[in-house]
Amino acid sequence: MNEQQLIEGCRKGNRLAQKELYETYSRKMMGVCLRYTNDRETARDLLQDGFVKVYTSIDSYTGIGSFEGWMRKIFVNCALEYLRKSDVLREAIDLDNTTELANPDSSVVSNMSANELLTLIGELPTGFRTVFNLFAIEGFSHKEIGELLDITESTSRSQYTRAKQLLQRKIHTLYN
Prior knowledge:
The chain is 72% helix and 0% strand.
């Protein structure tokens, strides 16, 4: 089945189409879930919740924009909903002693694999990691992030800056 046939099948509640949709997108969407939580079990729960939401709200997909992008948004929102409920976004780490590296070696970053970088991002504290993912990977503005997470725009900027600083420190420690 092509993507349009999968969508139509899911709209009609066809279990075979739902299974194929899951098999087609579950790895990518699991990656999205893992970016927001470091716990594989929680990520699996988010994956299941996300697919339930995809199946129940598939009628709202208008065909404008990519279907995968529409799905990704659902999974990001599931992860954010989980993080808001568990209140982990309110946790703060004192990074006042974190100093930005004067001249981070960009050649080190360019020589890292995507998996190495994602692993380091995954090690960031939850709040930092969430804002970093939303801004740097998902492309949300700080204003949008503030609205999504119920924080101020300046808090989003601060969390992003601190995430970058901590990431730079981790890279510097690993490769120097």
